[in-house]
């Protein structure tokens, strides 16, 4: 018996509100999933007993597993309230990350994320610059090497 809820294995599902005013939906079965269905799709959203969330899959294999019902197209999009954002997509031949509405795509790293690379909306790529003027621009600062090419050793 669960000390917090008083439920024993096999008690089905519990829907409750606790003192923190949050709604809890709990599957009391030891290996049971929580599934949400829509329009005849029994597995529109699944939360499995490990806490993994699946959208479009009944068996999520990661913390968040999102799958399309076909082979090609947009998988996810993340936008602000006026439509600027990023999208992820795939086909059988390629995967893509895209920025919308003529936005530049930035790559940032570090504890306080700093821009490391940019692909602007015209397709120009800049490393070490925020406004590339060529198809590929690498700008160095200080004593950093701007570009290093190492030839593989020949046998």
Task: Describe the fold and architecture.
This protein is mainly beta. Helix content is 0%, strand content 41%. The protein is built from no helices and 13 strands. A 4-stranded mixed β-sheet has the order 3-4-5-6, with no helix packed on it. It is elongated. The N and C termini lie far apart (69 Å). The relative contact order is 0.06. The mean pLDDT is 85.
Q: TL;DR of this structure?
A:
By secondary structure, this protein is an all-beta fold. Helix content is 0%, strand content 41%.
Short key terms for the protein model shown above:
155 residues; mainly beta; four-stranded mixed sheet; 13 strands; elongated
Topology summary:
Layout: E1 13-17, E2 23-27, E3 34-38, E4 41-47, E5 53-55, E6 64-66, E7 73-79, E8 85-90, E9 95-99, E10 105-109, E11 114-119, E12 125-127, E13 136-138
Parallel strand pairs: 5-6, 12-13
Antiparallel strand pairs: 1-2, 3-4, 4-5, 7-8, 8-9, 10-11, 11-12
